[in-house]
Design brief:
Blueprint: H1 8-20, H2 24-30, H3 42-48, H4 50-69, H5 74-81, H6 85-109, H7 115-132, H8 139-168, H9 173-195, H10 204-208, E1 210-214, E2 232-236, H11 240-249, H12 252-278, H13 290-303
Antiparallel strand pairs: 1-2
Helix pairs in contact: 4-8, 4-9, 4-12, 6-8, 7-8, 7-12, 8-13, 9-12
Transmembrane segments: 50-70, 90-110, 139-159, 180-199, 255-275
Region (Disordered): 1-26
Keywords: Membrane, Transmembrane, Transmembrane helix
């Protein structure tokens, strides 16, 4: 005898279960961290938070100024610090490695220190370092200033991006693009400002000394044959007086004072933002995208 198993009921129940299971897109939309933001016009977000946006973009532009000035001025800084070009390569390494350290440390400190105070310390730090660079007369003092500047640069890099993302959430795209555009403007403008004051002379030969090869005129040997010319190497010792002369011919300090004044202006904007928040006249107004900012603000408040 053959028995038939009616699995239609099982098929129907499995079909109903499959219909009840949400799709991947529906599941993502139902989770807390992936709720879609309502469409908010970019112009409205900017007009409601224009002071924050202008301040963060300007501060990030100061970061770009610090990145762009060092390469074009390396010859004049070598003359100023009496350092050859081979040793001057360390200034690039020190500045960039401290930028990495500053970015990491700022991310750790932001849960304990108000973000705008950290941002103010970074903006004020890079400006003061610009003013102190003309006073550096040795490589050690220049590296010390660039260590402080690099740490402040890392703070600005981390905190400005963090605040933009906290404020605007999924609507942050245009604001991040604007901020990085100002970074490019700062990195582009700083060499142009510095180029008007540069002597752009490599002082390495006058610091380490150099060798001149001379070829005397051909002569005749004892048998009337033509003698091969001999190369004569003449060593020229270091010439500190020429380095001193080139150092005072350079007008590089004026470039650093101008760049430092520009950065000081944006540090003043951060002070103004802090003051406006203290008296209660300024706060972020992000509309529908505010759930990202609120979650971060609550976590920061609980940590502090």
């Amino acid at each position: 005898m053959m028995t038939f198993i009616d699995d239609s009921s099982e098929t129907k129940s499995s079909t109903k279960g499959a219909e009840k299971e949400p799709s991947d897109l529906q599941w993502l939309q139902q989770t807390e961290h992936h709720r879609p933001d309502k469409s908010v016009p970019f112009c409205k977000l900017f007009l409601d938070n224009w002071l924050y946006v202008v301040t963060y973009c300007g501060v990030f532009g100061s970061f770009g100024v610090c990145v762009g000035f060092l390469g074009p001025t390396v010859f004049d800084l070598g003359c100023q610090t009496n350092t050859d070009l081979k040793k001057m390569n360390w200034v690039f390494f020190v500045q960039l490695i401290m930028t990495l350290v500053g970015s990491i440390s700022a991310g750790c400190l932001v849960v304990r220190v108000p973000v705008h105070l950290l941002m103010l310390s970074g903006a004020l730090g890079v400006s003061l370092c610009m003013f102190f660079i003309p006073a550096c007369s040795s490589l050690a003092s220049l590296i010390l200033v660039l260590i402080i500047m690099g740490w402040c640069m890392g703070c600005l890099d981390c905190l400005t991006n963090l605040r933009m993302i906290q404020m605007f959430g999924n609507n942050v795209g245009p604001f991040l693009q604007a901020m990085h555009c100002l970074y490019g403007v700062g990195a582009f403008v700083s060499p142009m400002i510095a180029s008007a004051f540069l002597l752009n002379t490599d002082c390495t030969p006058y610091i380490d000394g150099f060798t001149i090869e001379t070829h005397p005129r051909n002569g005749t040997g004892p048998n009337g044959t033509r003698a091969e010319p001999a190369t004569v190497n003449t060593y020229i010792p270091p010439q500190p007086h020429r380095v001193f002369r080139y150092r005072h011919m350079s007008r590089l300090p004026s470039a650093f004072y101008i760049l430092g004044a520009i950065q000081l202006f944006f540090a003043g904007l951060v002070v103004y933002v802090i003051f406006q928040e203290k008296i209660g006249k300024l706060k972020p107004n992000v509309g529908a995208s505010g759930h990202h900012d609120n979650s971060h603000a609550e976590s920061s408040t609980s940590c502090t």
